[in-house]
DNA sequence: CACGCCTAGTCGTCCGTACGAGGAGCCGGT
DNA sequence: ACCGGCTCCTCGTACGGACGACTAGGCGTG
């Protein structure tokens, strides 16, 4: 049974922060393991001799930090931290596509780093180009696009949402419109139809997630996301794909290497 | 005077979310301009006919999104968004150092983009290399370093903290140890002592700021920061500088360009 | 044995109240 | 004119009570 300390009335921190600190400590020290259930709000209320709202306030703070997640009707549970993925800027090098037996790059990388990887919530559909996408693909507003949405998971926890936009004139009718795009992924298919990829640009930002993203990525209240918008160019410097990704910030480190010129 | 809608009791969203949505809308539409004060909690309580805790809950949500900031004893204010700086990966190209009349790159860029820029809280001192820095500079732990800390401001608002670490054997005794490193900045000085810069690596991440960073960057409760750790290499592939920066996420977009190989 | 119902436990939301602490402005004393 | 205190308004924190919604597990019925 978990042993927690008591409030210190001489401490100048308000009780709810002290309670949050005690729980945080228990989590950091492993007294509360990932996946484990915290004492119920009622139990904490009695233990500390405070009102339920005070306990809730403390738990709200931990939820905000992404340390715990509440499940309605079940309890509050310690969240497992996803492993950190380091994304080097050569991750789309052709060599990585070659030897991977047709497995998606994400799965290969997971295997090496020792975590299980999954892709789900795959949606493929046609849509008209919005302003941002049209501009990056250098297409007229409203051009026909093939859109691939998917969610990536590591150790069963969602860590990234990705949406790819490709001009329908390039991707239409290819395996890119199939749930399984085949060996080497969609970039291999793009190259097969005559667009050899030569360079990428990425725009990186960070912000708080929208309520929708928060839900899809199963995020706490104040866990930020990294946004990466990648544009792929072929040998003729034609933009062939825009990939908009929203990543759980705590699960990623991006690495770039560039010359001083 | 601000006109807000009323609650819709048939709406299945809870009242506090509806109130948050109404306020968010007012901010998005500009009915509540940046810097402007929201109606007080008491006023909102009366307007919507709910308890104060319900209004507070709504405002807490907006604070979580970084849209507003509460100031104890004054009120709740719409946060002003600092101008967005786009940092391209060629921003350290030598050409940018050449024509700038000795002005720091940051100031030149600000002039072009139409905002005022300042640098303050400059601190220069010697220190021993910590683990992370020593590893990146490929030096023994505890090696002597020249450290330059500074804070960048745009339109008077702090947007970035930067700390540069250079081996004392390279930077010691040069203008790098002076408050004003001279035309072209510290990279020009590094090249003058025989280390021509050839490439950089950057590691990008995002997280919530520490209380200290929150204070220095004058951030609200839940505004994330971008962390960029840049390492500069010379022609002999010797690491000559590590620059650790913490940037207000909403003020930055990082741009990278890399080949597919 | 399978299924649905019921109940206890849990979190989500909301009410009303109370006091403390920080900020700003009025206002009188000096 | 200056300064200090007072008061009012603001947000921060806390109390206790109430009901709703969701989950899980026991229990009875078919």
UniProtKB/TrEMBL annotation, chains A, B:
CDD domains, sorted: WHTH_GntR (cd07377)
SMART domains: HTH_GNTR, UTRA
Single Gene Ontology BP annotation: negative regulation of DNA-templated transcription
Keywords: DNA-binding, Transcription, Transcription regulation
InterPro entries: Bact_HTH_transcr_reg, Chorismate_lyase_/UTRA_dom_sf, Tscrpt_reg_HTH_GntR, UTRA, WH-like_DNA-bd_sf, WH_DNA-bd_sf
PROSITE patterns in the record: HTH_GNTR (PS50949)
Pfam families recorded: GntR (PF00392), UTRA (PF07702)
Residue ranges annotated for the HTH gntR-type domain, each copy included: 13-81
Protein name: GntR family transcriptional regulator
Organism name: Tamaricihabitans halophyticus
């Amino acid at each position: 049974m978990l042993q927690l300390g008591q409030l210190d009335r001489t401490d100048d921190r308000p009780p709810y922060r002290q309670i949050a600190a005690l729980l945080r400590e228990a989590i950091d020290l492993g007294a509360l393991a990932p996946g484990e259930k915290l004492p119920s709000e009622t139990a904490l209320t009695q233990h500390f001799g405070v009102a339920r709202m005070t306990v809730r306030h403390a738990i709200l703070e931990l939820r905000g930090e992404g340390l715990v997640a509440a499940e309605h009707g079940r309890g509050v549970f310690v969240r497992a931290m996803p492993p950190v993925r380091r994304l080097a800027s050569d991750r789309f090098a052709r060599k990585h596509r070659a030897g991977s037996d047709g497995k998606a790059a994400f799965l290969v990388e997971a295997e090496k780093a020792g975590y299980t990887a999954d892709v789900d919530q795959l949606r493929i559909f046609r849509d008209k180009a919005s302003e941002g996408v049209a501009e990056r693909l250098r297409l007229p507003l409203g051009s026909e696009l093939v859109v691939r949405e998917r969610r990536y998971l590591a150790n069963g926890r969602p860590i990234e949402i990705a949406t790819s936009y490709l001009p329908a004139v390039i991707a239409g009718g290819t395996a890119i419109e199939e749930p399984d795009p085949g060996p080497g992924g969609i970039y291999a298919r793009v190259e097969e139809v005559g667009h050899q990829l030569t360079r990428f640009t990425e725009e990186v930002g960070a912000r708080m997630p929208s309520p929708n993203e928060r839900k899809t990525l199963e995020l706490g209240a104040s866990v930020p996301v990294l946004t990466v918008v990648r544009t792929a160019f072929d040998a003729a410097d034609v933009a062939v794909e825009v990939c908009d990704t929203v990543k759980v910030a705590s699960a990623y480190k991006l690495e770039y290497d560039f010359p001083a010129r």
